[in-house]
Specification:
This protein is mainly beta. It has 3 helices and 14 strands.
Length: 293
């Protein structure tokens, strides 16, 4: 994907070395756009062709906007690479953004990979001469809230997903009262930690979770109030748990206790209607006998 002529807005004053580097990276795949006041290149004028919505474009601002940028070695030891996390040019289901990995080779920036879904709220660590990222992300839709934890290792093809917890209490009365199991989970802490003292950083997290079943939902008029009371009950009864994922060098494996905790949570999020009472056998009426003469 070659560079195109720059049609975006230029900074009015001399840009910083960091801004120049960001501009050079952006120029390898799109028309960069800058904010004059900050003298910084912030993204692409239009959605690049490799995104999920390349037909989208805007007349003011950046359609594909940089949220985070990192420079270092991510997929190979010693490689000169750039990792850019963008917002825009993807639908809600794909995280409304993406991550682009580029490598500087033969005096030019070249695209290595693009993945829908931006990286946000990340902690970095070094392993085997490369940078790994421990990130948190979330989404909310129709009364459901998800919190996800991911490890992004661009030298390893495995999926980044590590675990998630969810909250669906907002859906209890959204479309009218309903039967169901309602649960509240959240992540209070997550970070790198050498749990087994082998020199490689593992992942430790603290979560809380609780659930409640509505077999008989409240009336429509009283649902909002009952939903608030339920949220208070779930918060006060939540169980705190520690999750541990051990770094094997190729993946992050949950400890046996972590596997059990996550399995228990999965069971508690499934709704099972109460068993129906066994109907009484039909009456056969009085039994008459005939006497043989």
């Amino acid at each position: 994907m070659g560079a195109r002529a720059h049609t975006g807005v230029r900074p009015e004053a001399t840009p910083t070395p960091e801004a120049i580097r960001r501009r050079d990276v952006l120029s390898s795949f799109c028309d960069p756009i800058a904010v004059p006041e900050s003298r910084d290149w912030v993204g692409c004028v239009e959605c690049p062709s490799f995104t999920g919505s390349p037909e989208q474009g805007i007349t003011a601002g950046a359609a594909f906007q940089i949220e985070e940028d990192y420079f270092g070695s991510f997929s190979q030891r010693g490689a000169a690479e750039a990792l850019l996390s963008f917002s825009g040019c993807e639908v809600r289901a794909m995280g409304m953004g993406g991550v682009l990995l580029l490598r500087y080779e033969s005096r030019a920036w070249r695209i290595v990979s693009y993945t829908a879904g931006p990286m946000r709220d990340c902690q970095r660590t070094e392993q085997d001469g490369r940078t790994l990222f421990l990130c948190r992300s979330g989404s909310a839709w129709q009364g459901y809230v998800d919190e996800n934890v991911e490890v992004h290792d661009y030298g390893n093809p495995r999926p980044p997903f590590l675990f998630n917890v969810s909250d669906n209490t907002g859906s209890a009365c959204l479309l009218g009262p309903r039967q169901g199991v309602f649960y509240s989970g959240n992540i209070s802490a997550v970070g790198w930690l050498d749990l087994n003292h082998d020199g490689w950083l593992d992942v430790a997290a603290t979560i809380s979770f609780s659930s409640e079943i509505w077999h008989t939902p409240p009336t429509e008029d009283g649902c909002a109030h009952e939903g608030e009371l339920m949220s208070d009950r779930l918060e006060s009864s939540a169980t705190r748990s520690r999750l541990e994922f051990i770094n094997t060098g190729t993946d992050f494996r949950p400890s046996p206790s972590t596997q059990q905790i996550l399995a228990d949570i999965e069971v508690k999020t499934r709704y099972r209607p109460p068993p129906r009472p066994t109907p009484a056998p039909p009456s056969r009426g009085p039994v008459t006998t005939r006497t043989r003469r």
